[in-house]
Amino acid sequence: MGDSVSRDVELLYLAQADEHVRHAKEGIARQQRWVDLHARDDPDELLRGQRLLQAMRETLGELLVHRDGIVQRLGSP
């Protein structure tokens, strides 16, 4: 019983992690569009936009590492 509860909890964590990754990817896409449309003529805005994109990509990387850890803990069914 305890193993199935733990597995169920891990599956919930995995679903949350998937949702966080999806939101992060959507945010990166929105920011990239903003940079492409609004910042290309302003070097300062372009630099700020690029820095924000880099930070967002680093956060996505951390989310993916977290998600992979959950997948490894789950192992095979």
How much strand?
under 5%
Mean pLDDT: 92
Summarize the amount of helix as a percent range.
Answer: over 70%
For the CA atoms, what is the radius of gyration?
17 Å
What count of helical segments does DSSP give? 2
Order of helices and strands: HH
Which class of secondary structure composition applies to the elements?
Answer: mainly alpha
| Backbone shape | rod-shaped
Major sheet description: none
Distance between the termini: 15 Å
Number of DSSP strands? 0
Low-confidence stretches: none
Protein model, in words:
It is a single chain. The protein is mostly helical. Helices cover 91% and strands 0% of the residues. It is built from 2 helices and no strands. It has helices spanning 2-39, 43-74. It is rod-shaped.
In short:
By secondary structure, the protein is mainly alpha-helical. It is built from 2 helices and no strands.
List keywords for this structure.
single chain, 77 residues, mainly alpha, rod-shaped
Give the secondary structure arrangement, pairings included.
Blueprint: H1 2-39, H2 43-74
